[in-house]
Amino acid sequence: xxxxxxxxxxxxxxxxxxxxxxxxxxxxxxxxxxxxxxxxxxxxxxxxxxxxxxxxxxxxxxxxxxxxxxxxxxxxxxxxxxxxxxxxxxxxxxxxxxxxxxxxxxxxxxxxxxxxxxxxxxxxxxxxxxxxxxxxxxxxxxxxxxxxxxxxxxxxxxxxxxxxxxxxxxxxxxxxxxxxxxxxxxxxxxxxxxxxxxxxxxxxxxxxxxxxxxxxxxxxxxxxxxxxxxxxxxxxxxxxxxxxxxxxxxxxxxxxxxxxxxxxxxxxxxxxxxxxxxxxxxxxxxxxxxxxxxxxxxxxxxxxxxxxxxxxxxxxxxxxxxxxxxxxxxxxxxxxxxxxxxxxxxxxxxxxxxxxxxxxxxxxxxxxxxxxxxxxxxxxxxxxxxxxxxxxxxxxxxxxxxxxxxxxxxxxxxxxxxxxxxxx
Length: 424
What we know:
Helices cover 26% and strands 20% of the residues.
């Protein structure tokens, strides 16, 4: 508390030994000894009988303090000290819509480099492995190079279908790994008839047709070429308006809320098989083939002296004929229209292993049988000559099979096994 306001107006210029405010208070407290005469009478602010507190009086008249007439001009702020740290900052990279660059920028050091022996079921599991990540990048690159879709703003009136990644390991006949494949599959079961599809088609290849083509080629000593068309469904043009979500892991960062307007078909769409079959058959008819009236998978080309047979199931093609030079010319025509791979002589077609011998061709399904046993969990079972007793049939249980779907899958696989094992 200041003794008199008049003392503040009489302050002189500061001396060289100007005390601080903390020292002023300390000197005043130490030099003051309270007494009843010095204490002023308390004001009657309350009727309570609380004890009077100690009142501190600071006399500033004997100290020389600087008189403040106005605020001094602020001194310019000194520049911050330059950091001597060797760290350098990189400029911020702009956002890009290039999905291939986005995928390549993902840290590869966190991925597992060794090759897995089993296929994953989810994107998060697959993205942990470098081989599966590279397979997905190859699939996305193929889709973009083919201009499969374009991004458009989402509207509530659109029926947007989902998608998922499907992975599988393509193996050779001996069981070794040939390559890892990843395919983006549309969830076609969410399509609505009359809105984003109209007609469907399911290709079925007849065992009798395959046997007939093999028999003709062996009896006349013809070469059978096997062709594989890459991303067959990407060659088909959609006539309906189909919208799809952006693929998992490859969402455009600049347009995350947009959807894909499909221009080409994808695996999983209800009209995909029909569109691809129409595209392929139109081209084959344009170069002189004619479609078989008995089997839709067979096409025949005949010019009077030479004859050729083409057998197709989705993207797997067998081609054989009487003239080798003309056969290679047909393969060149197909490669000019579609991106395909000539696998040479047939060795594995629809689960059927083909081995060339001096007597002709030997067909068997050894690998297919092992796959069935693995699926049924019977790889360690002993083999028997007769699967069931010829004298009587014993009913083991009157309960239904615990997994009907798995039972039907195994029975269907056994039916296809009759292609080379009609005895079962």
